[in-house]
Amino acid sequence: LVAYCGDLGYGVARGAEMLSVMLGLGIVSRIASGFVADRIGGVATLLIGSTLQGLALFLYLWFDGLTSLYVISGIFGLFQGGIVPMYAIIVREYFPAHEAGTRLGVILMATLFGMAFGGWVSGLIFDLTGSYQAAFVHEPRGTETAGDGVEVGGKVGHRCPVPPHGRRVPPTAA
Q1: pLDDT tens digits for 53-63?
Q2: What is the pLDDT of residues 90-100, one digit of tens each?
Q3: Closest listed residue to residue 63, CA positions, set 128, 14, 4, 142
Q4: How far, CA to CA in Å, does 156 sit from each of 19, 55, 91, 111, 139?
């Protein structure tokens, strides 16, 4: 975002301000998503947050004015902050406690790999095309979000049942 603002002629300081707005509202999102997850569950909260984040990222394609970039950065921040904490909630809801450390470690490793790879690919796209537009279409977090589905949804071998109210039922002793 900082480099994008620099390329648009607004200066990197404006991009840093937008990043601050995004991260500040990400804190709000992190807290609010916990309340939402208590009501509808971690998986539903993750899906809603990821979808809305993708839509907010898509808005960067259509708007490049200074005010609109601040607004979009705020919107993006409201949706991005609560995604990663949902991984721990999902693990808590669906898996036994003794597997939590391993599962969260693998999930967060895949998440960070996706973020790093997405950033690198976005830079490569910019180097090849001279524009960030194609990088916004690529959506760097798509790599991470795809990994979420595989990691969280694909490993339900020893999962704990989740009743309709969203609270995990502890496994019985064998």
Answers
A1: 989 988 988 88
A2: 998 898 989 88
A3: 4
A4: 37, 29, 10, 19, 28
Residues 38-60: b if buried by 16+ CB within 10 A, e if exposed: eeebbbebbbbbbebbeebbebb
**H-assigned helices in the chain:** 2-8, 12-40, 42-59, 66-80, 83-94, 100-129, 133-138, 141-148, 154
Structural contact between residues 71 and 87, judged by C-beta atoms closer than 8 angstroms:
no
What is each CA distance from 33 to 29, 41, 43, 48, 79, in whole angstroms?
A: 6, 10, 11, 10, 9
As to burial, measured by CB atoms within 10 angstroms (0-12 exposed, 13-18 middle, 19+ buried), residue 158 is: exposed
DSSP 11: -
Question: How many residues are given for the chain?
Answer: 174
Six token digits for residue 8: 């648009």
Structural tokens at position 14: 């404006």
CA 15 – CA 18 distance, rounded (Å): 5
CB atoms within 10 A of CB 73: 25
Q: State the Cα–Cα distance between residues 100 and 109, nearest whole angstrom.
A: 14
